[in-house]
Amino acid sequence: MKILGIDTSCDDTCVALLEIRNLTTAHSQWAGSPSPKFRAAAKFDIKSNVVSSQVKLHAKYGGVYPFLAKREHQKNLPAVFKKATKEIDVFKIDLVGVTIGPGLEPCLWQGVNFAKELAKKFTLQIIPVNHVEAHIYANFLNYVPRQRNLFPAICLVVSGGHTQLILMKNHGQYKILGETRDDAAGECFDKAARILGLSYPGGPIISKLAKKINNGSPTSIILPRPMIYQKNYDFSFSGLKTAVLYDFRSRSSKIRKSKEYIRSMCAEIQQATIDVLIKKTLKAAKDFKVKSIILGGGVAANDELRKQFSRKLKSKKIPSSSPSLWSSVIENCKLNFLVPPKNLCTDNAAMVAVTAYFRREEATKNWQKIKVNANLKI
Ligand code: KG4
Ligand code: ZN
């Protein structure tokens, strides 16, 4: 089976081709699943995963301009599709999965309309995909098949547009436990980077500069850890960004420009964010007695977040093992820890294609009726 994935929810034009081969149920990672539709085991082969980034275009604004992004998607989609499908006969595609939300509405329509054109031309069915669910399913692309039940799981989806803690009871069954009340964590990285005069997107550059602090020694700057001790599972990151702004303004121009100050600030922004994310995720994992913690979204590509999460879990005597290059799984009988490889944390269409596979029963010939929903909830 070949599934084409399309995502144009934000500023990346993404098209991927996923080949799925069925495995025997004996080796099925889904063998314990109560739902027959998830019982068939599969091996996923990412044939192509093309991401055309608009970062350079939006960098000068320090954020994404929806109508500029929409125009770029329209311009880029045919070439990105061609590149993603160059190795195969497009008539061999079985299904198209496309992100319908959440995201920027004018951008989402570009992907959906493109999927509809393909459906018409090649007589295909379309599966509408939720972008947040796709960030979670990025983990299943390379998860080594084993007879282990992962559910219930706590999913932390943390990106430029979302910061959500989700209880995943089984495939396709979710409950949002908490989310950000204002800025997403990635958005906070992006805005803080802009205040400090750093490039867009902020997450990767903040992470890089934070590494240059000598041996991770504590910095003299102390930023707040918003809502860290509150009993709920919500987040708030706009106060953190404001604290960065106030500190920056209170410094002389000489200090503001110094490498030492910028690096210390980056390390503290990163640590404040990590402290809140880890504390709330572990609290949710404990409160709901889950079997797994699953990360997803652009911020999950952060090295320090990955490291500190696994350190925290290991310190509870969870042996680590890395069964594949693609995903790191820390496991014991109590808790699995899944985080996608870094390139599958940030926006891509392979994650959309794999989600479409798990929702293949929802494929519709009635694709003319598919609409986008910028505020779609999982
Ligand atoms: O998932 P994604 O590509 O798009 C959305 O769905 O929003 O996430 C993009 C976000 C940006 O805010 C970016 O600054 C952040 O992810 N990001 C990172 C890292 N790489 C990307 N944040 C922290 N550390 C990183 N290494
Ligand atoms: Zn995303």
UniProtKB/TrEMBL annotation:
It comes from the Bacteria. Its main location: cytoplasm. Fe cation binds at H131, H135, D347. Substrate binds at V157, V158, S159, G160, G161, D190, G203, N302. It is an enzyme of class 2 (transferase). Residues 46-353 form the Gcp-like domain. GO terms for cellular component: cytoplasm. The keyword Aminoacyl-tRNA synthetase does not apply. Its EC number is 2.3.1.234. It catalyses: L-threonylcarbamoyladenylate + adenosine(37) in tRNA = N(6)-L-threonylcarbamoyladenosine(37) in tRNA + AMP + H(+). One of its GO terms (molecular function) is iron ion binding. Keywords: Acyltransferase, Cytoplasm, Iron, Metal-binding, Transferase, tRNA processing. It is found in: Cytoplasm. Its cofactor is Fe(2+). Binds 1 Fe(2+) ion per subunit. GO terms for biological process: tRNA threonylcarbamoyladenosine modification. PANTHER family: TRNA N6-ADENOSINE THREONYLCARBAMOYLTRANSFERASE, TRNA N6-ADENOSINE THREONYLCARBAMOYLTRANSFERASE, MITOCHONDRIAL. Required for the formation of a threonylcarbamoyl group on adenosine at position 37 (t(6)A37) in tRNAs that read codons beginning with adenine. Is involved in the transfer of the threonylcarbamoyl moiety of threonylcarbamoyl-AMP (TC-AMP) to the N6 group of A37, together with TsaE and TsaB. TsaD likely plays a direct catalytic role in this reaction. HAMAP family: TsaD (MF_01445). Belongs to the KAE1 / TsaD family. This is tRNA N6-adenosine threonylcarbamoyltransferase. It comes from Candidatus Nealsonbacteria bacterium CG18_big_fil_WC_8_21_14_2_50_37_10. The gene is tsaD.
